[in-house]
Amino acid sequence: MDKLLLERQCFLSQATWTDVDEFKVLIDAQDYYQSFYQHTLKARKKIVIVGWDVDSRTKLLPNTQLTLKQHLLQLVQNNCELNIYILCWDFSIFTSSEREWGPWLFGSKWHERIEFIMDHHHPLFSSQHQKIVTVDDQVVFVGGIDLCENRLDNSEHLKETSLRINSRGKSYKAFHDVQVLIRGKMAEPVIHIANQRWLQATKKDISLPFVTEPLDWETPGVVIGETASRLKGMVIETSPHKIKTKRKMDNLKATLELIKLARKYIYIENQYLTHRRVIKALGQKLTEGKIEITVVLPKKSFNWLENSTIHLVQRNALMKLREYDQYNKLKVVYPRIDYQDKSLLYVHSKLMIVDNIFFKVGSSNLNHRSMGLDSECDVLFFSKDQEGKIKKIFLCLVSEHLGLSSEIVEQFLLNNKSLHLLINSRKESERSLQEFPKEKIFLQNLWGIEPIFDRSSTVSWLKILEKPRSLLLGYR
User: Fold this and answer.
1) How far apart are the C-alpha atoms of 423 and 425, rounded to whole Å?
2) Homologous superfamily of 21-222 in CATH?
3) Fewer CB in 10 Å around end: N or C, the chain?
4) pLDDT for the residue numbered 5
5) Domain boundaries 3-13+225-435, corresponding CATH code
């Protein structure tokens, strides 16, 4: 038995795995919002929403004007036993342009059985970044998608569509993200996290007895659950150090372990890639020259602030990563959805697929903030069947970016054994994955500092006072 196989078995035996009863992959916000709408219609006792952002104006369904606030109000008006709890990050001034200001300035009292809390129970400069919804403590949604504006899109990602018009009448760029819907024993840890977040913020226990019931899968998405006995899962939590609790960095540990165990390929979609240990782990894999690594990132950052801070650090990180690639096994790409005017698709998903047997998805970016400072929630799935469920997810994602059917992608990979060859063959197509330019970064000190926007730990006021410039650049 080879060393990698032994290490993989060791990882599987040491981790806390749970049988997965059923789960569904919801690719892009239209599928998620429709599934959220349909499952919350059936809520009887409780809905919990935990988010980085929660916006009452969020349009839930295509071709309607139904907003999140209208939907939740209808639910409680039609069910006198239903309570809804919404916990949203008490956000930074740096993200204020993206937010709904009403709840922050005046509080949000929609209904006596809808409680809206702006959560400030986190260390300096950290954020509440989890994206969780639970329904009756039975069904959970977890991933990278918030219930907020400028997210709604579908997998077609049309250049122009009425789907991407927000409440202010402004259009926004095509948006790609992934959420999963889970039911059964694996849902329990996510439910516990959501309930604990509410308890910490309000001192109020909102837990319900956990009872499993059959789940109606007549909703959008990639259904995964035909042979649940062959699928294992675990919940991965990241939380910052607090006075009474130790810091959890489970996602960093899992990410590094998955990279180490890869034998055939690594496929990553993420909003950022800057974490030094992740870069080093990927680089060490590249020096072996055996597997293809594909990283899908957005070409441009979300706003001016990111472009002037973390985007510069990422460019430097990618330059470092390419230095390891002596065997031409790395592709760092961004999605393009229109060849003629070079329209781009913004990648907000946070996922990793390894060898068709590991699938990790959640709220964590591959940067220092997500790996140690912010509150995050991810889920990791393992399948023994390399031709089964996780391969199906991989094919769906690749086919979306390249404008091909899953069957065509599967056949090409079967014949050529290389995703990179397929990406090269689609460079001139309407839908494609384009390589990032190989830039030279002359600000070498960027790699030696941790910007205030990509920290891995809290910062003391003493150090800020000692070095005021660290408010903009961070400190060593």
Assistant:
1) 5
2) Endonuclease Chain A (3.30.870.10)
3) N
4) 58
5) 3.30.870.10
